[in-house]
Amino acid sequence: MEHALIEIKDLKVEFKTERATAYALNGVNLEIKKGESLGLVGEAGAGKTTTALSILNLLAKPAAHIMGGDVLYKGTSVFSMSEKKLRDIRGKEISMIFQNPLTSLNPVFTVGEQIAMVLRTHKNLGKKEAFQEAGKLLETVGIASYRLSDYPHQFSGGMRQRVGIAASLACNPELLIADEPTTALDVTIQAQILELMKDLQDKYSTSLLMITHNLGIISELCQKVAVMYAGRIIEYGTVKEVFKYPAHPYTKGLLGAIPRLDVDSDHLEVIPGNIANVHHLPSGCKFHPRCAFCKKECEQEEPAMNRINDNHYVACYINEGGL
Amino acid sequence: MDKKLLFGRIKRSKFFIVGGIGVFFIIILAFTSPLFVSFDGTTSSLMERFTPPEGFSKGLAGHILGTDQLGRDILTRILLGARISLSIAIICVALSAFIGTVLGLIAGYFGGAVDKIIMRTCDVFLSIPSLILAIAIMAVLGTSIINLITVMVISRWVQYARLMRNQVMVIRNKEFVLASKAFGASHWHIMFKQIFVNITTPLIILLSQQIGQMILMESSLSFLNMGIQPPLPSWGSMIANGRSYIASYPWVVVAPGIALMLTVLSFNFLGDGLRDILDPKQK
Fold first, then answer.
1. Between vectors from CA B163 to CA B162 and to CA B168, what angle results, nearest 5°?
2. Terminal C-alpha separation, chain B
């Protein structure tokens, strides 16, 4: 059997600081196949970025501790790879778009130099060739190539994010991780960037891991969706299936919290309470203190991932008897 | 930074203009002096000892600033001394800046045990009084220009290491550093390309201020007879040798003293001016 592009197996990550231990990931299982686009949703602090960074083995040492599980890239564990092998993969085969385009570019280099740096690291291009190639990349993300020798501060936020996208696509990566690429941008620019990412994904047939808390983006861009809560995947399946028949109370809550134009209502549905404190996680199902359907076993034992059908899995007791 | 903004700040900074002009003239004078001085700075002529300053009464051929206890022309010796002092100061600043910057970058970037080892070494070096270290080294290895440079570098690199470390600490957690890691950059590339170019401003400022400090230190070592050895002229040794005649022939001491003061002042002004101009926080 061929390996999936990325397999995350029961990954547990803790951040240890002097004062406390944060249980960031508590057994994440995830799979990204070649050419597939997966959306990862969850509240702030659910562990989305930690998951993404552990794929690249870039978790902030020495605070981060991998307590168990593994991340396999094409069947090889990224945690056992040599530093050199990792550097070859980063940017070339897996690359990442960062959340804040205002801080993810180095202010002292021109955008051309920064894209060219990626090309020169991985493709062994000369200075001039790399610069030309960078110009072409800028054109594909919709920036005129004469702006290569401009500095990041001469660009707007949306354009800087395009530069970031150009840099991450420089080596035609197999997997593109987009960590909330549109959160720092305003809505019209968001639409442009998403359109661009959709086009580029069709063009290059890259796999995509889209991290966001915006469910709209996921339904636009992704085939599959994984919902995260307190360091676990609680629901996983195709976007169509999950959005239409959400099975986990948390997913239902998330979908219910989207303002709708077709229903006349004064109030938005809310999920009561706050996201679970990563320093003191509740026992059993991490969501049970906020869950309206909480049963006795929810408080005691963590529910396992149950299959609803081939396209839909959920970790919740209320679905055990079937819907 | 914008060229126009930079130019506007240069015009407004009086420190930079005064210091810059001063430093410019001092360097030009020091390094072109062998072309026009009319006396030999090292041979004595006892007939002419303690000639008072003649000013320009005999034109450039006279002893403009007088002569010292061995009849050597003081202006000539100041100019030649400037060449030696400046060269040594620049070499020392360059060497100590190089060592300190590299170690500071490494300490700040890697953190942890590496940082602790380098920074505790810095503490050790800081706790040794530089004059006592100089006396110890000169006593063991003898006085020579190489030893002089060694002493000055050993006692000054710590400044750069500490400055660079703190600056790196600020920059290394920025998102663009993580981004370049995610693009597969090596530690070396991140340290010396991504981070270093972001922190050159404080380094430039420290460099210009340290040149003045180095000139002073070289002079004080020479004053204690541990620096430049006679008959080569150095401002420190000129002041040291002339101090016994200060009551009767004050120009022997005053002239090199003023030269030293003006030079250090110019470099300090230049450093302060650079700080005003390059500091991004002052908009």
1. 100
2. 11
> Which among B96, B74, B201, B218 is positioned nearest to B157, based on CA atoms?
B96
For tokens 């050790």, name the residue.
Answer: B124
* B176: nearest CB among A62, A87, A103: A103
Per-residue pLDDT tens over the stretch A109-138 = 899 999 999 999 898 888 899 999 999 999
Give the domains, in start order, of chain B with CATH numbers: 88-283 (1.10.3720.10)
Q: Span B34-49, mean pLDDT?
A: 77
- State the Cα–Cα distance between residues A167 and A178, nearest whole angstrom: 13
Among residues A43, A50, A47, the alpha carbon closest in space to that of A250 is found at A43
Quote the CA–CA distance of A83 and B37 in Å, as a whole number: 62
Nearest residue on chain B to A115, alpha-carbon basis: B183
Out of B176, B178, B185, the one facing A121 most closely (by C-beta) is: B185
> How is chain B split among helix, strand and coil, in percent rounded to 5?
75, 0, 25
Give residue-wise pLDDT tens across range A217-226.
888 889 999 9
d(CA B268, CA B259) in angstroms, rounded, equals 14
C-alpha closest to that of B111 among B157, B201, B159, B177: B177
Give me Rg for the CA atoms of chain A: 21
- pTM of the predicted protein model: 0.81
CB atoms within 10 A of CB A107: 14
Count of alpha carbons within 13 angstroms of residue B264, beta-carbon side:
16
A96 touches chain B (CB under 8 A): yes
Preceding amide of A259 cis, omega within 30: no
Whether residue B48 has pLDDT greater than 80: no
Q: Do B183 and A62 touch (CB under 8 A)?
A: no
Sheet holding A306-309, edge to edge: A94-97, A175-179, A207-212, A37-41, A224-229, A232-238, A312-314, A306-309
CA B3 vs CA A58, A153, B9, B197, B279: distances in Å: 38, 15, 10, 18, 14
H, E, C per residue of A218-270: HHHHCCEEEEEECCEEEEEEEHHHHHHCCCCHHHHHHHHCCCCCCCCCCCCCC
Predicted ipTM of the assembly: 0.83
Nearest to B148 by CA among B126, B133, B163: B133
Q: Which residues contact B210 (CB under 8 A, 6 or more apart)?
A: B93, B96, B97, B156, B159
CB-based contact A163:A145 (threshold 8 Å): no
In our burial notation (b when 16+ CB lie closer than 10 A, e otherwise), range A221-230 reads bbebbbbbbb
As a whole number of angstroms, the distance between CA A59 and CA A66 comes to 9
Please tell me if residue B116 touches chain A, with a CB cutoff of 8 Å.
no
What is the number of other CB atoms lying within 10 angstroms of the CB of residue A216?
11
* CA A95 to chain CA centroid, nearest Å: 12
